[in-house]
Every structure is written in structure tokens, then in C-alpha cells.
């Protein structure tokens, strides 16, 4: 989704803005732009379709001086991805320029109204409409810019984060937010301000960060205290957080792609996720959200999980873990479906929001609805300080570090690890997990990072298998029980980054439809590592082989029966059934990664996808 960067201070803005855009590239975008305000008091704007490097080429050799500026990566909503529609947009008078992330729902009608007042538009975007409305409001009512922004935003329906500069105010950026994230980094003694869609462009400059809340406007003027107000012009207290962002986590760490780094980082980051929580010496699991809300959780009528994409697959695993160890009924819903279904939810329900970015618009709206109806909101989030984390009553951070590759990998294993710890800790409190099982799962959780490492060490074997599949058009993924969500996740990974059509199915459902597709051109990935239903999955495999299907099987080390009937076998270590996804998903990630690389595709920023989906 769109990314916003802004700077006002004493340094040259352009290099900070470009570096910030690079750090936001992971969000997914199709064009980019930058505006700076130089000493001559004139705005300089450059835009380019495609990557940020194209923008740098446009600006090279031209004047982009100035200590104030805003920049943007655009993910098209209203209007095609071209230079005309790229941000920053310029107002009719040429004095104001704006970048916007989000969607304005009443842009059509506002455009008509402004046209009838003589405004003309250079782009097809809703963002330009918003800018012209701000300018119109300022000119009509002769107010200062912040008041005009406030008045204009009251007329706007939709989601936005904006940053705006005025040629006549060479030290100020005005920002506002509704349903789209925006962070403000505060420099020492307010000498400079850094604006960004998330904290990553700010990392390394300052640790003091304010996350703007919905319906707030902030005036960032260098050398002066940050002013935040609500849409009724009431001053809001500035609540700056100290956020430690490890800058080294924002690079590829020697790998060719962020996705590769994130796959290979999993042993280390899962240790990090369990650190201080899985207390080895005491055999205890400490999660403050569980101890702090013990009665609410144990006494819950049911749990409802809301999420999207990969996080939804992790929720399917969470359901199985919690139902197994806590005997609490769990429903799993797509956040987008939940919020528009007039859900039966209220006091006594615990609604879990699972989200890597913590900014997914549908998930955020789903929990806002559930909260209004009296449910307790429990966040399982990666991005510290994100909107979902802040909107939750309690929760557990997965702490796997920033995930940059659009295809989620380490967040999925982090979420699964948190669910395993949560189910065990709560099951023990509730008395629904016996000591022997608790101890067995606890010990196995400690072993999981090493076992994942042993699969990663065989990446080249998986690469060799992958090379034969780059030319395929379709792939079917089958698994049962705990491996069913892994089949869904394997298929999602493949379609996201290799553009090969892929479907995940519960293996037994194959005979109710997908079996009609089986022929020699249909590769079928079977998750056949021991997971409780080995004999059954073997029968499903025979059904595919006898129809000429081309099978790739994930099996447990030492398996001989699958090897007798299948050539392409990927061995993974044995583990406890309930933790199987933490291992079996690794070959799924590697298979998709190697196939996409073999096809020469942009693994980290696949076409049309966004990392952080901040529109509904
Ligand atoms: C996007 C991303 C996916 C992610 C999904 C949910 O589609 O490309 O990788 O799984 O959003 O995002 P969240 O940040 O809420 O986990």
C-alpha cells in the first residue's frame, strides 16, 4: 500500500526522503514521487512510474535542495499507475502539495462540486480532490492551513493519512490521519520531525515516536513543540513512545532477497519470540496477557479469531491448538467477512486479532466492531505500537523483527509459536492439559528452532526440485489436520510470488472435486509427514498417482513407504503433531521462493500485492 515520508529540520530533506521511500518499498507500490522546498521558496516535484530508483534518475542533476519535503510510494486505487497520478499532487494555486495513503469514498461528488467552482484536475486521483478541497476551504474562509485542513477533512468520507506542505511555510508539515497509519519521529529539542507510514524510515534518526490516532491533525514545525489536535480543534497531549528499532534488521543481511533472509532467520527469531516467555529452568510459560486476563480467558464463552491472508492461516492453526489444549470453542473468520456479517459477538467473547503489520484495515475495523459490542480484544501482532496493537485490550507481540518481503514467512511461524505457548499456558491454568503433554510440547518447542535449521540446511535439495516446476500453470497442495492450513499457506506462497495458480485443500476433500483436475500436468504437493492421519494421506496419494498426477511429498525423516511410490520427496524432522506446521511450512516457503527465483520474478515485491493493506 502507499507509503508516506516527510521531513522538516536542519538537514537536506531529499536523501532522508529517498532512503525512507526505499525502506517503505516492501509495502508494495507502482509509482513514486518527492517534493522539496528549497531556499528560493519554490516547490520542486519529481515523479516516476515503477521503482524508487526511477524516481532518483528523474531527480538526478536537477534541483532537489531544501530542508523540508514530502515523498510517496503509490499503490493505485483511483486512476492508473502513471506519472500524472503519482503523488505529491499540487494544488490549483501551485502553493500546496500533498501525499495521501488511503481511499476517499466521496471523491466523485467532491470532484463535481469543486469543478463547478472552477477547479480543474490534473490527475484521476481521489487524493488530488482532497488537496483541492483543502485549498478551496482555505481560500473561501481565509483561515490558517491547519484549520482549513480540519474543516476540509470533516467533509471527507474514507480512509487517509496525509502529509501536506505549503510554499509559504518553509518549516512546517501538516499531517492527519483516519484509519491509515502515520508515525511522527521527534528529533532532539524538536529541532526536526520525521513523518512516515511506519517507524522503519525513522529508525536510526530518533527513537521518540508518536503514532497519530484517528481524527487527529498534527502541525510539525521545526524548532517548535509538536502540536496535535482533534477534528474539533481540541489540543491532544503528545504521547511519545521510545521505540527501539534495530536498523540492521532493515537490510537483506547478505541474502539476495528479504524473503530469503526472513526464511533463514526463522530459527533465530523464533528463539527471540520465546525468550523470556518459555522459562526452561522453571518449565513455565510466562505471558503477561494470560496472567493479566486469566479469568476473562478461562471463563470465555468462546474465542473468535479475525485476520487476513497468511495471518488467517495461522489462526486456523491457533484454533486447533487452543481447542486441543484449552477446550475452548474457537471460530476463525476472515476479518473482512466478520465485520459486515452483523456478527453475534459480545461480553464473554474474546476476539483475537492476528496481524503481522498491525495495520490491516479489515482486521482493525473488525476489532473495533467487536470492542463496541463488549468483547475483549486480544492482539497477536508483530509491529510494535501499530494500530491493531494499540486498539487491543491485551495481547502478545510475536517479536520476530520487521518483515519486509511481501510474502509473509517468519510472521507465520512467529504467530504459530505464540499460539502454541498461549494454548499451553492457558491449558495449564485451566487444567485441561495434563502434565505429560505439557512437558512434551514444552520440550519440543525448545527444539523447534534447531529442527527448522536442519530443513533450511537442505534448501539446495528443494531448489533442485523447484527448478522443474517453474513452467507449470497450476499446483495443488493437500494436507490433513494440522497440515491443512499449511497446504493453504503453501498454495498462497506460490501464487503470491510465482504467479502460478495454486489451491490448497484438505486432502480428503480432493475426491469431491479437485480430483477431476489430476493429470500429468498437475503437480500435487502432499504434506505427508506424520501428523496423525498418515495411512489416510497415503491412500489419497495413491489416488493421485494412479491418475498420472505428479507428486512432491513432504515426509518425516526415515519414511520409506512414500519413497517407494514417489520420486520427489522432501524429508523433515519428526515432531509432536500439534507443532507440525512449524516444520512443514518451511519446505512450502522454500519451494515457492526457489520457483519464483527460477522464473526471474521480483520475489520481495510481487506485482499488485501490498505488504500492509490499509484499505478495505
Ligand atoms: C497482505 C500481505 C500478506 C498478509 C496479509 C495480512 O495481503 O501481503 O502477507 O498475510 O496482508 O496482513 P497482516 O499484516 O494483517 O498479517
Explained architecture:
It is built from 20 helices and 27 strands. It has 616 residues and is α/β, with parallel strands linked by helices. The mean pLDDT is 93. 6-O-phosphono-alpha-D-glucopyranose binds next to helix 10. The site of 6-O-phosphono-alpha-D-glucopyranose has 14 residues, from helix 10.
**Biggest β-sheet: strands ordered side by side in the sheet:** 3-2-4-1-10-9-11-15
Gap from first CA to last CA: 11 Å
Shape: globular
What is the average per-residue confidence, as pLDDT, rounded to a whole number?
93
Q: Report the portion of residues in β strands.
A: 15-25%
Provide a short characterization of the protein structure.
The chain is 36% helix and 23% strand. It has 20 helices and 27 strands.
List keywords for this structure.
seven-stranded antiparallel sheet; eight-stranded antiparallel sheet; binds 6-O-phosphono-alpha-D-glucopyranose
Question: Which helices and strands, and how do they pair?
Answer:
Blueprint: E1 3-8, H1 13-24, E2 31-37, E3 43-49, H2 52-59, E4 68-74, E5 89-90, E6 96-104, H3 107-116, H4 126-141, H5 145-153, E7 158-166, E8 172-178, E9 183-186, E10 193-196, E11 208-211, E12 216-221, E13 227-230, E14 235-236, E15 241-242, H6 258-264, H7 266-274, E16 278-279, E17 284-285, H8 288-292, H9 294-298, E18 302-307, H10 309-326, E19 330-334, H11 335-339, E20 349-355, H12 361-372, E21 376-381, H13 387-391, E22 394-397, H14 410-430, H15 435-456, H16 459-466, E23 474-479, H17 483-498, E24 501-506, E25 523-527, H18 534-545, E26 550-556, H19 561-565, E27 568-572, H20 580-598
Parallel strand pairs: 18-19, 18-20, 20-21, 21-22, 23-24, 23-25, 25-26, 26-27
Antiparallel strand pairs: 1-4, 1-10, 2-3, 2-4, 5-6, 6-7, 7-8, 8-12, 9-10, 9-11, 11-15, 12-13, 13-14, 16-17
Helix pairs in contact: 3-4, 4-5, 7-14, 7-15, 10-14, 10-17, 14-15, 15-20, 16-20, 17-20
The structure holds 6-O-phosphono-alpha-D-glucopyranose (G6P).
Amino acid at each position: 500500500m502507499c507509503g508516506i515520508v516527510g521531513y522538516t529540520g536542519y538537514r537536506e530533506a531529499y536523501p532522508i526522503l529517498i532512503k525512507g521511500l526505499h525502506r517503505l518499498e516492501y509495502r508494495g507500490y507502482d509509482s513514486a514521487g518527492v517534493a522539496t522546498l528549497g531556499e528560493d521558496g519554490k516547490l520542486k516535484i519529481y515523479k516516476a512510474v515503477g521503482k524508487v530508483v526511477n524516481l532518483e534518475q528523474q531527480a538526478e542533476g536537477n534541483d532537489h535542495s531544501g530542508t523540508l519535503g514530502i515523498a510517496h510510494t503509490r499503490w493505485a486505487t483511483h486512476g492508473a499507475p502513471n506519472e500524472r497520478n503519482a503523488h505529491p499532487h499540487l494544488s490549483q494555486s501551485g502553493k500546496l502539495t500533498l501525499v495521501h495513503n488511503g481511499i476517499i469514498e466521496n471523491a466523485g461528488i467532491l470532484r463535481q462540486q469543486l469543478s463547478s467552482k472552477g477547479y480543474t484536475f490534473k490527475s484521476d486521483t481521489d487524493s488530488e480532490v482532497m488537496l483541492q478541497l483543502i485549498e478551496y476551504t482555505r481560500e473561501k474562509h481565509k483561515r490558517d492551513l491547519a484549520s482549513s485542513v480540519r474543516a476540509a477533512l470533516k467533509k471527507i468520507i474514507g480512509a487517509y493519512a496525509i502529509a501536506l506542505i505549503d510554499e509559504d511555510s518553509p518549516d512546517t508539515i501538516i499531517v492527519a490521519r483516519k484509519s491509515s497509519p502515520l508515525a511522527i519521529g521527534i528529533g532532539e529539542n524538536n529541532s526536526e520531525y520525521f513523518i512516515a507510514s511506519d517507524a522503519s524510515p525513522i529508525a536510526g534518526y530518533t527513537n521518540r515516536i508518536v503514532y497519530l490516532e484517528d481524527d487527529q491533525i498534527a502541525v510539525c514545525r521545526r524548532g517548535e513543540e509538536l502540536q496535535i489536535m482533534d477534528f474539533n480543534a481540541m489540543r491532544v497531549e503528545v504521547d511519545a513512545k521510545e521505540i527501539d528499532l534495530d536498523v540492521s534488521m532493515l537490510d537483506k543481511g547478505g541474502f539476495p532477497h528479504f524473503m530469503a533472509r526472513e526464511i533463514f532467520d526463522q530459527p533465530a527469531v523464533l528463539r527471540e519470540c520465546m525468550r523470556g516467555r518459555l522459562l526452561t529452568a522453571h518449565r513455565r510459560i510466562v505471558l503477561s496477557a494470560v496472567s493479566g486476563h486469566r479469568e476473562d480467558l478461562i471463563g470465555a464463552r468462546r474465542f473468535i479469531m479475525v485476520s487476513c491472508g497468511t495471518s488467517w492461516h495461522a489462526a486456523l492453526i491457533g484454533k486447533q491448538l487452543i481447542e486441543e489444549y484449552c477446550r475452548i470453542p474457537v471460530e476463525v473468520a476472515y476479518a473482512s467477512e466478520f465485520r459486515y456479517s452483523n456478527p453475534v459477538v459480545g461480553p464473554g467473547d474474546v476476539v483475537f486479532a492476528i496481524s503481522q503489520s498491525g495495520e490491516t484495515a479489515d482486521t482493525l475495523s473488525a476489532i473495533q466492531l467487536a470492542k463496541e459490542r463488549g468483547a475483549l480484544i486480544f492482539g497477536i501482532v508483530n509491529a510494535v505500537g501499530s494500530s491493531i496493537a494499540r486498539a487491543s485490550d491485551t495481547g502478545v507481540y510475536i517479536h520476530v523483527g520487521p518483515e519486509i518481503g511481501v510474502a509473509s514467512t517468519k510472521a507465520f511461524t512467529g504467530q504459530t509459536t505464540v499460539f502454541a505457548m498461549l494454548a499451553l499456558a492457558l491449558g495449564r491454568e485451566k487444567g485441561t492439559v495434563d502434565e505429560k503433554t505439557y512437558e512434551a510440547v514444552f520440550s519440543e518447542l525448545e527444539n523447534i528452532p534447531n529442527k527448522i535449521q536442519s530443513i533450511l540446511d537442505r534448501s539446495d535439495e528443494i531448489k533442485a526440485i523447484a527448478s522443474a516446476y517453474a513452467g507449470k500453470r497450476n499446483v495443488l497442495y493437500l494436507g490433513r489436520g494440522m497440515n491443512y492450513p499449511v497446504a493453504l499457506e503453501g498454495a498462497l506462497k506460490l501464487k503470491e510470488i510465482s504467479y502460478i495458480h495454486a489451491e490448497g485443500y484438505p486432502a480428503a476433500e480432493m475426491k469431491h472435486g479437485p480430483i477431476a483436475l489430476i493429470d500429468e500436468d498437475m503437480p500435487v504437493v502432499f504434506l505427508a509427514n506424520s501428523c496423525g492421519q498418515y495411512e489416510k494421506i497415503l491412500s489419497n496419494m495413491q489416488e493421485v498417482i494412479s491418475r498420472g498426477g505428479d507428486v512432491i511429498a513432504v515426509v518425516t525423516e526415515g519414511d520409506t513407504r512414500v519413497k517407494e511410490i514417489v520420486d520427489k520427496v522432501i524429508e523433515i524432522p519428526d515432531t509432536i503433531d500439534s507443532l507440525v506446521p512449524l516444520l512443514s511450512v518451511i519446505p512450502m516457503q522454500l519451494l515457492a521462493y526457489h520457483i519464483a527465483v527460477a522464473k526471474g520474478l521480483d520475489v520481495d515485491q510481487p506485482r499488485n500485492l501490498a505488504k500492509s493493506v490499509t484499505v478495505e
